[in-house]
Amino acid sequence: MAEKSISQLFKESLKNKNTYIPNLLTASRLVGAFVVPSLFLTGNISGAVIATVAFASTDFFDGKIARATNGYSEFGRVLDPIVDKAFAVVPALAILPSVPILALNIGAEAAIGYINAKSYVTNGNPKSSFLGKFKTFCLFPAIGFAYLSTALNIPSLTAFTTAFCLGTLGVQSAAALDYHKKAKQQEKTEQNTETVIEEQKEEDNKTKSLEEAKQYDKVKEKDIQSTQPIKVEESQTILDSIDLDQIPLEQIPGLIEAPVDQTTNTPKTFRKTNNKK
Length: 277
Known about the structure:
Blueprint: H1 6-13, H2 20-41, H3 45-69, H4 74-95, H5 102-123, H6 130-152, H7 155-226, H8 232-240, E1 260-261, E2 266-267, H9 268-276
Antiparallel strand pairs: 1-2
């Protein structure tokens, strides 16, 4: 498959107005990836938590609206996992010194992103899965709890956040394995399809070669028939139609001319025969 650039997919999505709202909701999470840590670092903890919940909810509504309004687009399909990774990784990096356990979640997201990117380059169609969606559903609250536990500094909340992050890591690992399995299956399907196409081409070439050989044999047979010797009956008919008296002796191929008597201007053999008579 020939991959299209993001700009080409974006231009194609503009042709369908129903894609505008779902794609805007999806893109809003990219903005949220920088809004959430900015609020937290400026001391607005409650604002950071509310922003996390608000932007994370767009991951649910963009798909709902797209399905309800026929606003699906290839651009939205490619954009969704990209902004999900950004919305998870950027805020997690901002709070990583306070919640080191998030490094495992960031690493898992990076692995999933690599698998999906490789699948897109290979066959242009990375397969989504329930585990992938459930992983995202768990990851956003994990980051929210990480911000909340850092702000409140409550031991029980911190322990809960750690456990939630580890649970999310388990879901991420399962999703990564599922994505990898689907990518391998898709790659195998593509290879089988290419093999079938090549075999069909080879079969078509063989059929074409046989047809050309048959055609050549027919032409060759016609040429042989046109160059065959004349039959005896046909040659006798031709000889009967020729008046030998009208053909000079010197023009008859293979005839040895008899000596001529200069006095009578007749062949000697004829003259001797006449004398005997």
